[in-house]
Structures are given as structure tokens and as C-alpha cells.
Amino acid sequence: MSTDLIGYLYAATVAAGGIMGYVKAGSIPSLAAGLAFGGILGYGAHLASQDPPRPLLQLGTSLVLAGMMGARWSKSGKMMPAGMICIISCAALIRGLYTYNRHLLPTRQ
Predict the structure, then answer these.
(1) Do 69 and 86 meet the contact criterion of CB atoms below 8 Å apart?
(2) Which residues cross the membrane (predicted)?
(3) Separation between Cα atoms, residue 94 and residue 62, nearest integer Å
(4) Is 84 buried (19+), middle (13-18) or exposed (0-12) by CB count in 10 A?
(5) Half-sphere exposure of 24 (CA within 13 A, CB side)
(6) Does residue 81 have a cis bond before it (omega within 30 degrees)?
């Protein structure tokens, strides 16, 4: 299995969003959440890069982020940052499910 570059990019995007939230608004919770979720997603990308891939950490984290940011997006109606992270998290969730189904589920014979 090759390196999960998309997973690492997703992790970096989430971490950078937390840093930007801190720089723009001085939000320490945004910084903490962005760095925590970015770190978890980075480790998840490492696990998904193994042979066989183990995408479950990325799946769970993407599900949590999609739910949290989807609720914030629904409440605020603002595309940035909640809507963007929700959409990216949903895409990562779909990608993780594809990887899980392709590599980890037993095949029928």
C-alpha cells in the first residue's frame, strides 16, 4: 500500500484551520481542537498507509468532524470554516469506507 497522501493533506488542513482560528479570532478552543483532530487524523493516515491499510481511526474521526462541523454549518449558515470542513470530512468518510470495503471485508466465494 502506498502512502496516504490525501489523508495527510486532510490532517494538515484540519490542523491549519485550528491555527487560523486562533490567529484570526484568538480562539484557544479552535486551536486545541484543530491540532488534536489534525494529530489524530495524521496518525490515522499513517495507519491507513500500512499494508494492509487500517482506516478505522480516520473513519471515526471523519464521522465525528462531519457531525460536529455539519451542526455548526447548519446553525451558522457560514461556509467557512464549518461548511468546508464538513464537506471535506464527508469526502474523507466516503473514501475511508471504500478503503475499508476494498481491503478489510472478507470476500464472498
Answers:
(1) yes
(2) 6-23, 30-49, 80-98
(3) 9
(4) middle
(5) 9
(6) yes
Find all residues with CB under 8 Å of 74, minimum gap 6, and list them.
none
Residue 94 identity: I
- What distance in Å separates the CA atoms of residue 27 and residue 21, rounded to the nearest whole number? 6
| Coil vs helix vs strand at 109 | coil
Number of other CB atoms surrounding residue 32 within 10 Å: 13
- Burial-class residue 100 by CB neighbours within 10 Å (0-12, 13-18, 19+): middle
Q: Convert the pLDDT of each residue in 81-94 to its tens digit.
A: 899 999 999 999 99
Q: Picking from 21-30, 34-43, 46-55, 57-66, which range would have the lowest pLDDT averaged per residue?
A: 46-55
